[in-house]
Inverse folding.
């Protein structure tokens, strides 16, 4: 089996836990995931199966969308409701208008400080390992991209809200919510998080462990996998004739002048052949007028 298995990750499972359980259900070791999801979060976790694991380091689309619930007026050591309470802000009172007014400041390219309870490494140590020992260390800020934040629900009396956040790779939603709370005169904690889209896949495409086990039982598991080339839908498609396909599969660089479907200024392509369909990715070297293999699948 080769392809993409979109999992709806349950709470209290790490991304590695998901891989471990799937290895037991599918009876195969060659599995990988496209990015970690916090243990208490649920939602879209694309799992790479078989030869699709080759795509781990070349994913073109790492954008994600989240639905996050937030409670204003509290702070914890983990920035979410499952951590230890560190401070309360009884005088903090946020209105929907105030929240709506500050959200534009958190869109576009913004700077984030990774939370101590995170998988970021500093000097060879995972931050969460240090945090569990009670240590707080300096860690570098990072630039992340937030495309949009939408208010889905707001309860002024309870001081809660539900936000939909569309963002790029490496964005910590817990940190984003805490930073918004601080801008509003106190702090805030995340109370629930669901990833509704990742790498171009949606929650509607995801399966549960029970559904995967049932598909293995009835022999339909291979049909549940999404094709590997769906990972590269952001790249333009390049179709080779039979002779070009043979050369490409043998590692021969192709003359750009002899290829159709090239787009000026576009460097990376998803490549298809006559005999074997999806072949892999390729890189157009415009200076040398050559097409070389990016990664073969």
């Amino acid at each position: 089996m080769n392809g993409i298995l979109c999992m709806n990750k349950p709470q209290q499972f790490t991304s590695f836990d998901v891989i471990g359980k799937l290895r037991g259900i599918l009876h195969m070791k060659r599995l990988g995931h496209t990015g970690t999801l916090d243990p208490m979060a649920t939602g879209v976790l694309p799992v790479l199966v078989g030869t699709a694991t080759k795509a781990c380091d070349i994913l073109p689309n790492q954008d994600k969308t989240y639905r996050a619930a937030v409670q204003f007026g509290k702070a914890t050591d983990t920035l979410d409701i499952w951590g230890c309470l560190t401070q309360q802000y009884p005088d903090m009172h946020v209105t929907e208008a105030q929240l709506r007014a500050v959200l534009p400041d958190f869109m576009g390219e913004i700077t984030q400080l990774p939370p101590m309870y995170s998988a970021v490494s500093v000097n060879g140590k995972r931050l969460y390992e240090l945090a569990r020992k009670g240590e707080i260390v300096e860690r570098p800020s990072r630039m992340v991209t937030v495309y949009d934040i939408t208010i889905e629900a707001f309860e002024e009396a309870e001081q809660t809200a539900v936000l939909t956040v569309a963002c790029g790779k490496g964005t910590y939603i817990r940190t984003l919510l805490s930073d918004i709370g601080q801008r509003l005169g106190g702090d805030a904690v995340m109370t629930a998080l669901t990833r509704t889209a990742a790498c171009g896949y949606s929650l509607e495409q995801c399966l549960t462990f029970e559904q995967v086990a049932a598909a293995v039982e009835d022999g339909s598991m291979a049909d549940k996998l999404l094709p590997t080339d769906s990972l590269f839908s952001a790249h333009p498609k390049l179709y080779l004739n039979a002779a070009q396909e043979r050369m490409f599969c043998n590692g021969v660089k192709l003359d750009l002048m002899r290829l159709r479907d090239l787009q000026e200024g576009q460097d990376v392509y998803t490549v298809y052949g006559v005999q074997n369909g999806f072949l892999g990715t390729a890189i157009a070297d415009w200076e040398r007028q050559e097409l070389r293999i990016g990664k073969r699948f």
The helical segments are 15-26, 96-102, 127-132, 173-183, 209-218, 221-224, 242-249. The CA atoms of residues 239 and 272 lie 5 Å apart. The chain has seven helices and 18 strands.
